[in-house]
Amino acid sequence: MARGLAVAAPHSGSGKTLITLGIIRALRNRGMKVASAKVGPDYIDGRFHEAASGAPCVNLDYWAMGAEACKARLAEIDADIVIVEGVMGLFDGPDSAKGSTADLAEALGLPIVLVIDAAKQAQSVAAVVHGFSTYRSSLNFAGVILNRVASDRHAKMLSGSLDSKILGLMRQNDSLIWPSRHLGLVQAQENQQLEAFIESAASGVSRETFLDKIVESASQTTNQSFAKAVLLPPLAQNIAIASDLVFSFAYPHLLADWLKQGAELSFFSPMNDEVPKGEAIFLPGGYPELHASKLASKTKFLGALRQHKGLIYGECGGYMVLGEAIIDADGKSHAMAGLLPVTTSFATRKLQLGYRQLKPINAPWKSKLRGHEFHYSTIASRRTADPLFHATDAAGNDLGPIGQRVGSAMGSYAHIISVAPE
After folding, report:
1. Closest CA to 342 of 364, 363, 326
2. Is the pTM value of this prediction over 0.90?
């Protein structure tokens, strides 16, 4: 198995994605075979990882997959080293359940490199490091990278309070700020300057961290016996998957699992008005609310959905497109496929964020599933249709029936992550 380590932080916005990208590319530039993983339900950061490493990035979600499945997926990675980027703060996770970066690192035996935003502190950083490194004695802390260091004097003040725990002092660099939008960072494939951005991050890491020590801190990932991951059955033998800037939130591990089970996958671009060709059509999530006007003009794509005789499954953004209309941020309505009796709105916004336990009612699968929701759009109107799932949150609070099915067309706001662990 590959050696691995986890890159974590006390809170979101500390710079762990940037430093993770820098480490991945810096090691790749040294000639190492580097792979990566992202903790939790995240589609966007993983695509940055892939650009930096040249290899697929897998999601490792302790809550949704379970420890055994995470071990199995990690064991499948062929690399010299695996860099695992954490999610949120180190100890942050689902309510009343395991699922934090700390939980995953402990289960998989991963040393932790803690990234701390030092911009607004000096000697007090020692207390932060002490608290995080001693809060759970079962964790293995490799050291800290102090980010957004302002000057040589600032670096000296920080260093004097930490001594040997420091693995890097990254200077503030305003050119290494990636734009964001309502669901996270602007997608990797949307900026032609991505390669230069990653190389700049790698240069900073190579120059301002002790990269050899970081590599040395990586440990052999767990060699304990574990059960194989239970795979989500494919929608059909042949599946056409929407894939472009609007439909990009498809988990790579699910697509890989469908391939393992013998499914044939093809990809098409709704934004290029391409016609899907497959027994089943999968519309992943993405940003249809930002492109509703253009989508409404794609008559070949929408016509193909209406004429399709097989199963059509939509998640979040895909669900919105299967509905009657999307109302954009300016309040203008744009007609969609009209296969489900729902209209969604980005003019009236409300954040819906959290894990979901899903019991299929009229879904393509029979097993209990785990997934998540993350969207700002709301349901403006809907008529009666068969529900797709019965949902509870991570703590077991009842959320009632969700999603819709009419004939062979179906969808919901939930993104499927995995078959529920035993």
Report:
1. 326
2. yes
Per-residue burial over 200-229, b = 16 or more CB atoms within 10 Å of its CB, e = otherwise: bbbebbbebbebeebbebbeebbeeebeeb
Give CA separation, 118 vs 237, 248, 286, in Å.
52, 34, 34
Termini Cα distance of the chain: 25
E strands of 61-208, at which residues?
81-85, 112-117, 141-149, 166-171, 180-181, 184-185
Instruction: Give the C-alpha separation, 239 to 299, whole Å.
Output: 21
**How far is residue 302 from each of residues 61, 73, 268, 309, 314, measured CA to CA in Å?**
34, 36, 13, 14, 13
**Each residue of 215-240: pLDDT tens digit?**
999 987 655 667 788 999 999 999 99
> How many whole angstroms separate alpha carbon 147 and alpha carbon 128?
14
Q: What letter represents residue 33's amino acid?
A: K
Going along the chain from its start, the domains and CATH numbers come out as: 3-220 (3.40.50.300), 238-419 (3.40.50.880)
Q: Contact at 8 Å (CB) between 73 and 104?
A: no
What 3-state class would DSSP assign to 65? Answer: helix
The single-letter code of the amino acid at 342 is V
Active site residue ranges: 316
